[in-house]
Design goal:
Layout lengths: L4 E5 L2 E3 L4 E2 L2 E2 L4 E3 L4 E5 L2 E3 L7 E3 L3 E5 L2 E3 L10 E3 L4 E5 L2 E4 L8 E5 L11 E4 L2 E4 L5 E6 L5 E4 L2 E3 L2 E5 L2 E4 L1
Organism: Siccirubricoccus deserti
Protein name: Right-handed parallel beta-helix repeat-containing protein
């Protein structure tokens, strides 16, 4: 449904993810090939397996939301945008926990090959904290499009960006 929009507002996704037959089978939310995934004022917390937010939509916006690992869960990426797309992450609180399944990256862009038009990647005014003892990359961009990082507050052992883009304070 390439023209469909999935709108999530004022919602809580708590403790999603499980193992079935020994295989990881769930995320906080997984949006397929939609026109847009819009998340506003929502919370994703304690995802047990996989990513909190994974989107293959043509446009993904996560605004004024919380994406939080807890000390005991082993979620993977906080946000996974595997095929590139238009992205806006603004005004969010993001925490990477000490047992993460992918401890080296918080936000992953283009990890499964960029197949979507990617006109802009904007990550603005977010608060990110890592509880890991090792360095975590806040945004790892494998697309060819420069990501814009501006106004983000990063706490812990963090590298702001790996891949094309620019970091402004």
């Amino acid at each position: 449904m390439p023209d469909a929009t999935l709108l999530i507002e004022d919602s809580v996704f708590l403790g999603n993810g499980a193992l079935r037959d020994g295989h990881a089978c769930a995320r906080g939310i997984y949006a397929g090939r939609l026109g847009a995934l819009l998340i506003r004022r929502s919370r994703f917390e304690a995802t047990r397996v996989c990513h909190h937010v994974k989107s293959r939509a043509a446009r993904t916006e996560v605004v004024d939301s919380q994406i939080l690992d807890t000390p005991d869960d082993n979620a993977s990426y906080l946000v996974d945008l595997p095929n590139g797309e238009e992205v806006l992450l603004r005004g969010n609180t993001l925490h990477k926990g000490p047992r993460s399944g992918n401890p080296g990256t918080a936000i992953a862009i283009g990890f499964e090959g960029v197949t979507q038009p990617t006109p802009s990647l904007r990550i603005l005014d977010n608060r990110f904290e890592t509880l890991l003892p090792r360095v975590t990359v806040f945004v790892r961009n494998r697309s060819k499009v420069a990501v814009e990082l501006s106004g983000n507050s990063l706490t812990g052992r963090v590298v702001a960006l790996v891949g094309p883009g620019r970091v402004a304070r």
